[in-house]
Structure formats: structure tokens, C-alpha cells
């Protein structure tokens, strides 16, 4: 039994060392990285903005959200951003929110939602945030 407790203590110590190293990096830089959706989160705090916690838990709305999500996730040509778009259904009316990488992705996600919810039942609040992390070559 002493070997098991020694191994557990060693694993715990290693975890603390590694975890402490990550926080030390941020401390040395002076601040943690800023989230890139702070303004959006502030907008979504307004009472008039539909958010996921306001989605209706009736079977029809839940089924609409599930079908849209499944359709989006099945499309492997979409970015991770598009796969993570917020889908809120309230009484059959769907609101889409979040960033995607291109106008084409925005249109594709909206079309998938419209295919499920029907024309006139989708509000598209998706924003386009291009991937600027790739270095340009001259």
C-alpha cells in the first residue's frame, strides 16, 4: 500500500508543479489573455437578447435545436467556430449567434437552420471573424 500512496502523492505534486508553471507564465506577462468575445457577452446580458438559457424546453423547440445542431456538426467543411454557433429556439423561432470564419459559413449555417425551422423563422446574428492567425507570405 505505501507504493500506491507514494505514486498518488507524486502525481499530485507533479500536477501542482505543472499547473503552477502555467499560472506563472501569465503572472510574468502581467495579465491573462483577454477573451475575444467580451463585447458579445456584454450585448447578450440585455434582457431582450435571446440566450441559450432562455431556450424553451418544450419538445418542439428542443427537437428544432437538436436537428440544426446535428446538421451543422455533420458538415465537416465548417470550422470549429461554425460548429459552436449558439442556437436558441423559442416557440419555433430560431436565433443564431456567434462567430464564424467566413460569409460562406454564415450563409451555410443560416440555410441549415432555415431548412429545419422554415423560412421566416430564423434570425441570423452570426458575425464573421476571419482567421488572422495564419502568417501572410510576401
CATH topology of the largest domain: Histidine-containing Protein, Chain: A
- What is the CATH-assigned architecture of the largest domain? 2-Layer Sandwich
Radius of gyration over C-alpha positions, nearest whole angstrom: 21 Å
| Terminal CA distance | 63 Å
Q: Structural class, from helix and strand content?
A: alpha+beta
Give the overall average pLDDT. Answer: 77
Characterize the overall form.
Answer: globular
Beta strand %: 5-15%
Kindly state the percentage of residues in helix.
40-55%
Low-confidence stretches: none
Task: Give the spatial strand order of the biggest sheet.
Answer: 1-2-3
Give the H and E element order: HHHHEEHE
CATH uppermost class of the largest domain: Alpha Beta
Number of domains: 2
Q: What's the main sheet like? A: 3 strands, mixed
Count of discrete alpha- or pi-helical segments spanning 4 or more residues: 5
Kindly state the number of beta strands. Answer: 3
Amino acid at each position: 500500500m505505501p507504493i500506491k500512496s507514494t505514486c498518488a502523492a507524486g502525481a499530485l505534486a507533479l500536477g501542482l508543479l505543472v499547473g503552477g508553471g502555467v499560472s506563472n507564465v501569465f503572472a510574468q506577462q502581467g495579465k491573462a489573455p483577454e477573451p475575444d468575445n467580451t463585447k458579445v457577452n456584454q450585448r447578450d446580458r440585455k434582457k431582450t437578447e435571446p440566450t441559450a438559457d432562455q431556450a424553451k424546453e418544450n419538445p418542439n423547440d428542443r427537437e428544432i435545436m437538436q436537428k440544426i445542431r446535428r446538421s451543422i456538426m455533420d458538415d465537416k467543411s465548417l470550422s470549429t467556430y461554425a460548429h459552436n454557433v449558439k442556437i436558441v429556439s423559442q416557440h419555433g423561432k430560431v436565433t443564431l449567434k456567434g462567430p464564424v470564419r467566413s460569409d460562406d459559413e454564415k450563409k451555410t449555417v443560416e440555410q441549415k437552420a432555415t431548412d429545419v425551422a422554415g423560412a421566416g423563422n430564423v434570425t441570423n446574428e452570426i458575425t464573421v471573424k476571419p482567421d488572422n492567425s495564419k502568417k501572410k507570405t510576401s
